[in-house]
Design brief:
The protein is mostly helical. The protein has helices at 2-17, 21-27, 33-47, 50-57, 66-79, 82-92, 97-101, 107-123, 125-152, 161-184, 188-218. The longest helix has 31 residues, at 188-218.
Length: 226
């Protein structure tokens, strides 16, 4: 029952956010290679810290749920070096590695990436679960569509490794999310809290994407200023 409510809430939030101007353009393929490069830079910054965040979250799980902690660590290990997929895609698109590695994330990326740490320390682990739920659901829902759209723009397979990886691997990760929900969401109050945090995380991620798209739109030489 909880899993169905949670999925429905995430889907409803995505429908609402996808009506925003930048998301409408993105989903309609009304972007260029520079926009995709910009998204990948911010994805590189965000993905690089995600495994450590999941390990960190286990410190705040109630009780000593050893099997759940084990699952969290296994999940985190599978995410290690996914930032390097984004970096590889950028290199295939002609962006110098040093530019990306030495760049600073945009403000919205900082906010999105810091959100799960704040939730663990100041509220509850369900806040982290909301962040993770969105990140795992999105690629399996839309990854294939975005890959096809980018291919139409001329992006080759060697610059789509991040999307391709998450479009397939995250199917199994969604099953892990169902397990996490079974273990951590045990009441209507838990469910409502998780749904709220999913909505917050989803909005923050969209703000990150919009920030990346705006950068590429506003300055055709943005790569040089990284």
């Amino acid at each position: 029952m909880f899993k169905e409510r949670i999925l429905s809430a995430w889907q409803s939030e995505m429908i609402k956010l996808n009506k925003r101007p930048w998301m409408t353009r993105l989903r309609g393929g009304e972007i260029g290679i520079g926009h995709y490069q910009s998204i990948l830079v911010e994805t590189y910054h965000n993905a690089g810290i995600n495994p450590q965040q999941q390990a960190f979250a286990t410190m705040y799980l109630p009780g000593k749920p050893r099997e759940l902690i084990k699952k969290f660590y296994q999940h985190a290990i599978s995410e290690i070096a996914h930032d390097l997929l984004a970096l590889s895609d950028l290199k295939a698109l002609g962006v110098p590695e040093a530019k990306v590695v030495n760049s600073r994330p945009l403000p919205a990326t900082v906010g999105f990436t810091a959100f799960p740490i704040f939730q663990c320390q100041m509220r509850a682990p369900l806040g982290y679960l909301g962040y993770l739920y969105h990140l795992e659901r999105l690629p399996t829902a839309d990854g294939g569509k975005y890959a096809m759209m980018l291919k139409v723009l001329g992006v080759k397979d060697d610059a789509l490794t991040f999307i391709d990886e998450h479009s397939t691997v995250d199917v199994s990760h969604n099953k892990m999310m169902d397990y996490y929900i079974d273990q951590l969401v045990t009441s209507d109050q838990d469910c409502n809290e998780l749904i709220h945090q999913i909505r917050v995380a989803t909005k923050l991620h969209v703000l990150m994407l919009e920030g990346a798209l705006e950068r590429a739109e506003d300055d055709s030489e943005w790569v040089e200023s990284l």
